[in-house]
């Protein structure tokens, strides 16, 4: 049975958990709040690197005040022994009286066992508080558990007429410094930044987070069928410092793959879809490596493939107040759609100014 303040305290736990996004994979970004007598006595999120877990952090802060208190957790407490003891057992040992869980954990090692442990110890458990938001926040983790796909955010930065470069390929910079700084903040909230081979060749991007003070950089992912990438790129030169993963045709010659592995890249063989790497296979491979959230920055071909396959969860569009014309490079390549009914649909969740530019955030319908 829920209490009047459950939603308020769970909202705080969700906010805490979200701060861990991009820092805790392959674990979920969980938040926990401990409340005694209407007062918060402990709070925590999953620590960078994935442990300690949120419940352990919050219980350590609460200390003896946890006895008889209520714990608000955004995901069912773990019930299995891994690198650390189960969080369900930590909650039981602290003698909390009640645990409020936003949503259950589909991981087969948990999947109801955490709640069962708590109830067997005489602790009252309430589930489903702010469940929809929690499931959205943990959607990438759920996809990782299922081995299907992490959460995918597709970022576009274009002119008013949807162009990302002039006819000569000039693209720096369409948007201003405020928008570019926001992109770095978004990268930091994801486990990986992904681009297609064309973008990697044309722009020689580093794809790192800069100016945010982060200590754990996202993985750099390049989707390249033939691995026909420049061997002296900035990204490859730094592959031993910041991970570079290359998704390629599973039938590529072993010698070509070995050359990139020697340069420090992790090579992930993927299935093909016609003449391009199957985007669903790419995301399944990334989920299999433990990624929960991927930030895709194009180019047009990879963006179109993800959209056609229905694999984009959130669309972030930065718009600049300039017009390039039809001869410019479109933000999204041809998608082969004949009817509007076939077009992917998204719902607008935010629009605002970012310096001289705008940002729109759209979520998959």
TrEMBL record:
Organism, scientific name: Flavimaricola marinus
Source species, domain of life: Bacteria
Name of one Pfam family that matches: RibD_C
EC number assigned by the record: 3.5.4.26, 1.1.1.193
PROSITE patterns linked to this entry: CYT_DCMP_DEAMINASES_1, CYT_DCMP_DEAMINASES_2
NCBIfam families tied to this protein: eubact_ribD, ribD_Cterm
General function of this protein: Converts 2,5-diamino-6-(ribosylamino)-4(3h)-pyrimidinone 5'-phosphate into 5-amino-6-(ribosylamino)-2,4(1h,3h)-pyrimidinedione 5'-phosphate.
Sites where the protein binds NADP(+): 157, 173, 199, 299-305
Domain CMP/dCMP-type deaminase intervals: 4-126
Catalyzed chemical reaction(s): 2,5-diamino-6-hydroxy-4-(5-phosphoribosylamino)-pyrimidine + H2O + H(+) = 5-amino-6-(5-phospho-D-ribosylamino)uracil + NH4(+); 5-amino-6-(5-phospho-D-ribitylamino)uracil + NADP(+) = 5-amino-6-(5-phospho-D-ribosylamino)uracil + NADPH + H(+)
UniProt keyword Transferase present: no
UniProt keyword annotations, A-Z: Hydrolase, Metal-binding, Multifunctional enzyme, NADP, Oxidoreductase, Riboflavin biosynthesis, Zinc
Single GO molecular function: diaminohydroxyphosphoribosylaminopyrimidine deaminase activity
Active site: 55 (proton donor)
The protein's name: Riboflavin biosynthesis protein RibD
GO biological process: riboflavin biosynthetic process
Positions that bind substrate: 171, 187, 203, 207, 210, 297
UniProt keyword annotation of Lipid metabolism present: no
Cofactor dependency: Zn(2+)
